[in-house]
């Protein structure tokens, strides 16, 4: 199979590329390296079936050429991360909406199976737990930039479903919940790599808000497995799927877990959201995926315990011992 991954030098994209190469597929990736890094691709860079292009996903000519070559397209390129979104809302909206528009337009021309990466953020301030795919979406005011990310991804979903309905384009929408594992960077506000870096350095571990907010964390390898299975499942076409682990942990408990497993030298401190995000930030107390739909479709869902995920991240981020 020939696979095209936009955002393939990113966290999820690089794991997906590696998995596709291991399965014997031919892989092309396109990435502008804005939040991704070429080093993420070190394990596959020299492989004869791996090809990469540095460029923008809004470049119609380039995207069209790469989509034409592929049997399946995974569109992961996006402006990602709470910090980036609050700091650069224009860039977020334009990259996420325009990028999907360009990919879907090219895919529709040749009926290419196309995965659109969406997010649990689209459930917004929903309080009916767990979040199921048919639930209503509840966004905050447009004056709060953090909702620009959720809305841009919701538009991507609508556009993909519109292509499917009107043109028969085979699209699959995956709403990723917090996906974590080695290679994720803490630079853009992601919680596990941030806490692990702080713990390994013996610095204070900074929890925003009360820390009572709870989250679910899915291991990236299991998210990639879900994508590979969905790609083989014709009944997935035209559907929206939650992809995530449904076990919850509070951010305080996560901070304590990481403190212990990184040697116990750090102190856990709490900071107000306004210290990190002056623009007015709203965070959700809980966010749990309903995973019944994906489990029924592919007989699989991410289940790795957060303790094991944290250990893998610590191992990947630990400085190498001198020989
Ligand atoms: N990691 C998560 O927890 C999570 C949760 C929900 C949704 N998602 C979605 O999954 C996808 C992948 O996220 P990730 O966590 O791997 O983030 P990431 O930032 O590591 O990956 C995104 C990649 O897209 C690239 N990119 C950004 N703008 C681009 C552009 N204009 N042209 C070409 N490439 C561009 C970046 O350089 C990066 O390599 C994104 O669409 C994101 O919205 C991720």
Describe the structure.
With 323 residues, the protein is of the alpha/beta class. The protein has one domain: 3-Layer(aba) Sandwich (Rossmann fold). The protein has eleven helices and 13 strands. The strands form four sheets. It has a seven-stranded parallel β-sheet with strand order 3-2-1-4-5-6-11, with helices on both faces. The chain has a two-stranded parallel ribbon with strand order 7-10. It has a two-stranded parallel sheet with strand order 8-13. α5 (147-167) links the parallel β5 and β6. α2 (60-69) packs across α4 (89-109), α4 packs parallel to α5 and α6 packs across α11 (306-317). The longest helix has 21 residues, at 89-109. The model has no long low-confidence stretch (mean pLDDT 94).
Short description:
This protein is α/β, with parallel strands linked by helices and 323 residues long.
Category from helices, strands and their pairing: alpha/beta
Instruction: Say what the CATH topology is.
Output: Rossmann fold
Average pLDDT confidence is 94
Uncertain runs with pLDDT below 50, 5 residues or more?
Answer: none
Strand order of the largest sheet: 3-2-1-4-5-6-11
Annotation field: number of helices: 11
Beta-strand percent range? 15-25%
CATH C-level label: Alpha Beta
Ligand kinds: nicotinamide-adenine-dinucleotide
What's the structural domain tally?
1
Q: What's the architecture, going by CATH?
A: 3-Layer(aba) Sandwich
Share in helix: 25-40%
DSSP strand tally: 13
The oligomeric status of these chains comes to single chain
SSE succession: EHEEHEHHEHEEHEEEHEEHEHHH
Quick one: biggest sheet? Answer: 7 strands, parallel
């Amino acid at each position: 199979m020939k696979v095209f991954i936009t955002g393939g030098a990113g966290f999820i994209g690089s794991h997906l590329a590696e998995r596709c190469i291991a399965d014997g597929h031919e892989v092309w990736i396109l990435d502008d390296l804005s939040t991704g890094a070429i080093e993420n691709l070190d394990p596959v860079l020299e492989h004869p079936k791996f090809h990469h292009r540095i460029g923008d996903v809004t470049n119609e000519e380039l995207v069209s050429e790469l989509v034409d070559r592929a049997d399946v397209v995974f569109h992961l390129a996006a402006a990602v991360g709470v910090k980036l979104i609050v700091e650069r809302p224009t860039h977020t909206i334009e990259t996420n909406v325009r990028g999907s528009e360009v990919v879907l337009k090219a895919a529709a021309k040749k009926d290419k199976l196309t995965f659109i990466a969406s997010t649990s953020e689209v459930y917004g301030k929903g309080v009916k737990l767990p979040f199921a795919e048919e639930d209503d979406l509840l966004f905050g005011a447009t004056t709060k930039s953090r909702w620009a990310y959720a809305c841009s991804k919701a538009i991507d979903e609508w556009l993909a479903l519109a292509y499917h309905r009107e043109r028969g384009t085979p699209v699959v929408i995956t709403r990723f919940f917090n996906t974590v594992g080695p290679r994720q960077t803490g630079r853009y506000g992601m919680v596990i790599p941030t806490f692990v870096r702080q713990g390994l350095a013996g610095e204070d571990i900074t929890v925003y808000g009360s820390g009572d907010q709870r989250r679910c964390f899915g291991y990236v390898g299991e998210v990639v497995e879900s994508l590979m299975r969905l790609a083989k499942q014709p009944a997935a076409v035209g559907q929206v799927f939650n992809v995530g682990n449904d076990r919850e942990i509070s951010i305080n408990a996560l901070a304590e877990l990481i403190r212990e497993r990184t040697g116990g030298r750090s102190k856990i401190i709490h900071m107000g959201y306004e210290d990190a995000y002056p623009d007015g930030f709203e965070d959700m107390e809980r966010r749990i995926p309903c995973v019944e739909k994906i489990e029924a479709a592919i007989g699989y869902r991410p289940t790795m315990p957060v303790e094991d995920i944290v250990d893998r991240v610590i191992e990947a981020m630990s400085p190498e011992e001198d020989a």
